[in-house]
């Protein structure tokens, strides 16, 4: 792999950097750089700005309205957005369901759903995990019974991230219980405004409403919302998970958070401690190694190779790195990192901080990021998959 960017790629980077500098709202970048609370308006404002430029689906081919960028260009775009303080694009629409619709959906599904995803106007949620089906995703029990020209859906999904904002949800549903688990699953698109869909919040330890339970009680779904063939959903799910694992690695956010860690360490007077700086250096080396792995996956994708095994490694290392930088931020701030004032997560809060203002979100993020090694398939399960597919 040639690690030097060409003059054309450097020019592309400069173009992206200039556009982001001109269009990214300053109030949003301030929140991102200081780890303050982002609301729906913040996330959707940025999505719509990207959509107007045709970049909300930055990895899409031209035939579906995307820019048709190659792997290096996509990487440079993601890096420049992250370093500038852009919020992470909510991936469920443009990164997850859109590629499935492009690859396996009907022409009608593509024409109906892809424009709303690209524009940022339609918010998608993911309906995979269930109370008894997380890392063991093939055991999903939410049922979809075919009755004429519609499906009747009953069951429950859980840990649905930002599902309270969802317009549509893509779900794995059981359409045949008489065969082995993987063979009886279908991929269904469901309008979340349908009668019988109930979203119930799950409030996290830090008081945030980030995830939800979603209940389906005799929900009628038009049969035309089935993606691909009935009982072939596991194939589509694996295709989607390859995209999700790459996205979960989130190497560019890790690079931005590394710089925040350095700022906090300097402000707290521990940056000159050789032992602490050694820990920062070790983290930086791991982030560079993760970036090389990301480029390897993108290179494989561009050449048409299947890279799910490497994507599993990305998920493992990316999640561990995210946890590590939150730990080092806590250590840098010491006892000032432990108090948590919920209101201090709002931009412009004028109350009394315990310690410096940069300490306010540290405890919240530390505890929140304990989830990273669990969601998207727990790291223990991912290691088993990697052992089977890579080591044999």
Please, how many helices? Answer: 12
Distance between the termini: 26 Å
Can you tell me the CATH class of the largest domain? Mainly Alpha
Which secondary-structure class do the elements indicate?
alpha+beta
Please give the domain count. Answer: 3
* Regions with little confidence, pLDDT below 50 for 5+ residues: none
In total, the number of strands is: 8
CATH architectural name of the largest domain = Up-down Bundle
* Shape summary: globular
Sheet bearing the most strands, described? 4 strands, mixed
Estimate the helix proportion, in percent.
40-55%
The topology string of helices and strands comes to HHHHHHEEEEEEEEHHHHHH
Q: What percentage of amino acids are in beta strands?
A: 5-15%
CATH fourth-tier homologous superfamily of the largest domain? Butyryl-CoA Dehydrogenase, subunit A, domain 3
What does this structure look like?
This protein has about 400 residues and is an alpha+beta fold. It folds into three domains: about 5-90, no CATH class; about 125-230, Butyryl-CoA Dehydrogenase, subunit A, domain 2 (Beta Barrel); about 245-390, Butyryl-CoA Dehydrogenase, subunit A, domain 3 (Up-down Bundle), CATH 1.20.140. It is about 50% helix and about 15% strand. The chain has twelve helices and eight strands. The strands form two sheets. Strands 1-4-5-8 form a four-stranded mixed sheet. Strands 2-3-7-6 form a four-stranded antiparallel sheet, with no helix packed on it. β6 (about 195-205) and β7 (about 210-220) form a beta hairpin. α1 (about 5-25) runs parallel beside α4 (about 70-85). The mean pLDDT is about 90.
């Amino acid at each position: 792999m040639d690690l030097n960017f060409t003059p054309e790629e450097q020019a592309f980077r400069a173009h992206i950097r200039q556009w982001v500098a001109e269009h990214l709202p300053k109030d949003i970048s301030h929140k991102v750089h200081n780890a303050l609370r982002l609301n729906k308006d913040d996330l959707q404002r940025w999505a719509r700005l990207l959509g107007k430029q045709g970049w909300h689906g930055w990895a899409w081919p031209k035939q579906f309205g995307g820019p048709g960028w190659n792997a290096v260009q996509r990487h440079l775009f993601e890096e420049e957005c992250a370093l500038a303080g852009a919020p992470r694009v909510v991936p469920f629409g443009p990164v997850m369901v859109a590629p499935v619709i492009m690859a396996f959906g009907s022409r009608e599904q593509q024409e109906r759903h892809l424009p709303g995803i690209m524009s940022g106007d339609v918010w998608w949620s993911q309906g995979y995990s269930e109370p008894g089906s997380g890392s063991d995703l093939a055991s999903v029990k939410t049922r979809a019974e075919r009755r004429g020209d519609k499906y009747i859906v009953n069951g429950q999904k859980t840990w649905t991230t930002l599902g309270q904002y969802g317009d549509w949800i893509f779900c794995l549903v059981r359409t045949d219980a008489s065969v082995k688990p993987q063979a009886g699953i279908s991929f269904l698109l469901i309008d979340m405004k349908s009668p019988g869909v109930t979203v119930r919040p799950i409030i996290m330890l830090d008081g945030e409403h980030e995830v939800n339970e979603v209940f389906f009680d005799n929900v009628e779904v038009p049969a035309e919302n089935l993606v691909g063939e009935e009982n072939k959903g596991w194939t589509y799910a694996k295709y989607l998970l390859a995209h999700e694992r790459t996205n979960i690695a989130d190497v560019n956010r890790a690079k931005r958070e590394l710089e925040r860690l350095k700022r906090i360490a300097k402000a707290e007077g521990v940056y000159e401690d050789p032992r602490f700086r050694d820990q920062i250096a070790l983290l930086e080396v791991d982030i560079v190694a993760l970036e090389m792995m990301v480029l390897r996956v993108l290179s494989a994708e561009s050449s048409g190779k299947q890279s799910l095994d490497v994507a599993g490694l990305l998920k493992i290392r990316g999640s561990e790195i995210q946890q590590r930088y939150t730990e080092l931020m806590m250590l840098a701030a010491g006892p000032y990192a432990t108090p948590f004032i919920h209101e201090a997560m709002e931009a412009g809060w004028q109350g009394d901080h315990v310690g410096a203002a940069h300490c306010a979100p540290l405890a919240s993020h530390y505890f929140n990021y304990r989830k990273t090694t669990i969601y998207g398939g727990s790291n223990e399960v991912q290691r088993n998959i990697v052992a089977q597919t890579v080591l044999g």
